[in-house]
Write a structure and sequence with these properties.
InterPro entries: SBP. The protein is of the alpha/beta class and 340 residues long. The protein contains 15 helices and ten strands. The protein is 41% helix and 16% strand.
């Protein structure tokens, strides 16, 4: 009888039902962007390596953070990809845990700016991007962010709305150029307000800019580097500005949900995402600029991404605390001076 029970137990362990019961599951929360490519380059290879199942939830930041908050007592998500500022918001809300970077074999390979973006040990950067000015090099010369407001140029400029990801960073750099660099962004918003009737559009989607430039309705616009590829395909000369005040940008990070029962597996996945091989594949597909400093890219990929140590060091990112503490004020001032 004893032997029969042991044999039955062994058969159960080998059966599909037993294997399914033993299979580990990792749930991640990510942006909806390029999910087919992420599946092929990140998710499927990781599942093959770990022998686990990956459950992927997508959505915008507001929706995904709200779900984490709603399930705070019994977390559903194990790992999330969010912006720097959203990571700090999640930290303030007690939704994420400190990352044990000693368990990340690829941590030392990251650019310094990506190792601890918020200075609290609660997030690790996996990609960043530069924000500068795309401009018609045959029509104008951009040496400063303030050049956008020159009388001879301002009637051919598109500027990002303050509600977009590019809005506050571009305002931050414009403020530096104007000598009005304060966290409330009041100076640059007021300067734009004075020129609001001249500016072609305060855009909300960068996808509309390529056509506007092709049609010569605009000559210049602040954009994120991830939007640059479309401009390079135009049959008019377009350049990427390197203003004397520098470039700004943004960073996306990975965080661990507080109370997750799968943190070791989540750390394995985080390490896989940060690996030189994975980051190279994502970069060559022009999906993400690499945060891993060991990544070597083809010239074509490098020209369309935010790439290289000098670029990483030069980015003047808005500190997350400033972004979180001033968002409501930025919108209020914008609505008063520029309009909705």
């Amino acid at each position: 009888m004893k032997r029969a029970l042991m044999a039955a137990a062994a058969l159960t362990a080998l059966s599909p039902l037993g294997a399914a019961a033993a299979e580990r599951t990792l749930t991640i929360s990510v942006y909806a962007f390029a999910q087919d490519d992420f599946k092929a380059l990140v998710y499927d290879p990781f599942e093959a390596q770990c022998g686990c199942k990956l459950v992927v939830e997508t959505g915008n930041s507001v929706e995904r953070l709200a779900k984490m908050e709603a399930n705070k007592a019994n977390p559903v998500v194990d790992l999330a990809a969010v912006s720097m500022a959203d990571a700090l918001a999640a930290s303030r809300a007690g939704l994420i845990d400190k990352i044990d970077t000693a368990k990340l074999t690829n941590f030392s390979k990251l650019y310094d700016v990506a190792k601890d973006p918020n200075g609290d040990g609660m997030s690790v950067g996996y990609t960043f991007y530069a924000t500068s000015i795309a401009y018609r090099s045959d029509k104008m010369k951009i040496e400063s962010w303030a050049d956008l407001l020159k009388p001879e140029y301002v009637g051919h400029v598109a500027f990002p709305n303050v509600t977009t990801n590019q809005g506050p960073p571009a305002l931050h750099m414009l403020g530096l150029a104007l000598g009005k660099d304060t966290p409330d962004l009041k100076g640059p918003i007021e300067a734009l307000g004075e020129k609001k009737d001249d500016i072609v559009t305060f855009y909300e989607k960068s996808s509309q800019l390529v056509q506007l430039m092709q049609q010569e309705e605009i000559w210049a616009a602040p954009i994120g580097r991830f939007s640059w590829a479309g401009f390079t395909k135009l049959d008019v000369p377009v350049a990427w500005a390197t203003p004397r005040e520098g470039q700004t940008g943004g960073m996306n990070v990975l965080v661990l949900t507080k109370g997750s029962k799968n943190q070791d597996l989540a750390l394995q996945f985080m390490d896989f995402w940060l690996s030189t091989d994975t980051q190279t594949k994502l970069a060559e597909k022009l999906i993400d600029s690499p945060a891993n400093s060991e990544v070597k890219l083809s010239e074509a990929a490098a020209n369309n991404l935010t790439y290289g140590e000098e670029t990483a060091k030069s980015l003047k990112l808005i500190p997350s605390a400033i972004a979180l503490d001033n968002r409501a004020g930025w919108l209020k001032t914008w609505n008063e001076k520029v309009g909705q």
